[in-house]
Amino acid sequence: MDTEIIKLEKESREGIFGRADLEKLIRAGEIIKKGGLVAFPTETVYGLGGNALDPEASKKIYEAKGRPSDNPLIVHIAEWDAVRKIAKEIPEDAEKLAESFLPGPLTMVLKKTDIVPAETTGGLDTVAVRLPSNRIARALIREAGGYVAAPSANISGRPSPTEVKYVIEDMMGRIPAIIDGGEGEIGLESTIIDMTISPPQVLRPGFITSEMLSGVLGRDIQIDSAVINADSKQPPRAPGMKYRHYAPRGELVIVEGNDDAVISKINELIAEDRRGGFKTGVMSCDENGNRYNADVIKLTGPFGDQKAAAHRLYSLLRSFDDEEVSRIYAESFSSDGFGAAIMNRLLKAAGHRVIRV
Ligand code: AMP
Ligand code: MG
User: Fold this and answer.
1) Which one is predicted more confidently, 351 or 229?
2) Residue 240: closest CA among 192, 208, 174, 280
3) What is the percent of the chain with per-residue pLDDT over 70, rounded to a whole number?
4) Domain residues of the chain, as ranges?
5) According to a count of CB atoms within 10 Å of the terminal CB, is the N or C end of the chain lower?
């Protein structure tokens, strides 16, 4: 299959569409309406979109990603009112969250209506709904008929793409079109909250933190413990969270402890890897970068800057692959606030390999 790369003007990225770009988005919407797939930018990561109400389109998404079909898809809408066609018994709390955080990087799990096929929800009787803030995404969803199922636009198991070059790497030849809309600002997937239980529970941490959700709902909102604890015997309540995810090709290990101990441990491991003939890499905060002896050093941003680290995380993991690094060591992050999302993804990428020093 030939894959068309649809390039938009810079102004369109800010939501001011010229005529030529609007026509391109209408054409991309047509592809989805006819049952095809289009990769598109969002404020989190690139999505791989198909008509959420068409079971055949959902099947194509699973196929293109190589994703197990029991892993449900998130349905993207272009305005909040559209939720009423795909979800029923929408709780007051969901309205409150929509009011406070949407459009934005928050996905709500709600009871589904019959119009949403089982293929889209992995057989569940609930549907995950998201209203992105990215204007290109919303324009495309509108042109595509209003309901776009879209997981991240990567091959299953790989880091989610935050830049179009990584979408191209994974999806070229597999789908008819990719919209190039620049870099995702947030860099990690949306927060997912299950609104079908009381109190609601966070199934996947993200930019909208449980503290922010608690603040709006006026009660304590917790993160599903199976998501945070590697050794939890309980299966996570968001089906996809059980799979290994976000992983680079090289072996990634997180080293945790105070700065000096971490640096000397990592340098020791690097020396050993060198003797074994491995190319080594380190993911470090800006301040520590020049204290490592690795072949490749990637900086996550100033120490404690969670936004910078989240924004870069997936691209850095992918860039180790680009440079064929086979042993990667990462400094750990605090799990406060947005840090819960960073550590959740980093731990999964590392297959929960952590060395504490
Ligand atoms: P992705 O599309 O790659 O961002 O992953 C979507 C994730 O959303 C899935 O892996 C699930 O963990 C979660 N999800 C989607 N729909 C539901 C649902 N109905 N109930 C619980 N979790 C869901
Ligand atoms: Mg994904």
Assistant:
1) 351
2) 192
3) 95
4) 4-228, 251-356
5) N
Tokens (6 digits) for 119: 């293929």
From the CA of 74, which ligand is nearest? Answer: 1
- Is 238 within 8 Å of 218 (Cβ atoms)? no
Q: Is the peptide bond before 239 cis (omega within 30 degrees of 0)?
A: no
Count Cβ atoms within 10 A of the Cβ of residue 337 and give its class: 0-12 exposed, 13-18 middle, 19 or more buried: middle
Mutual angle of helices 339-349 and 306-322, in 10-degree steps: 20
Mean pLDDT of all residues in 102-122: 97
Which of 48, 110, 203, 243 is the best mutation target for the ligand 1 pocket, counting ligand atoms within 8 Å of the beta carbon and taking the most? 203
Neighbours of ion ligand 2 (CB under 5 A): 152
In the prediction, which pLDDT does 246 show?
A: 82
From CA 178, how far away is CA 168, in angstroms rounded? 8
Task: Give the CATH superfamily of 4-228.
Answer: DHBP synthase (3.90.870.10)
Mean of the pLDDT values across residues 262-290? Answer: 98
Whole-angstrom CA distances from 142 to 27, 182, 189, 250, 267 are 12, 20, 21, 40, 52
CATH code of domain 251-356: 3.40.50.11030
Q: Whose CA is nearest to atom 4 of ligand 1?
A: 151
Residue 45 CA, closest ligand 1 atom number = 4
Half-sphere exposure of 314 (CA within 13 A, CB side): 30
Of 85, 103, 81, 101, nearest to 93 (Cα)?
101
pLDDT above 80 for 124: yes
Q: How much is the pTM?
A: 0.94
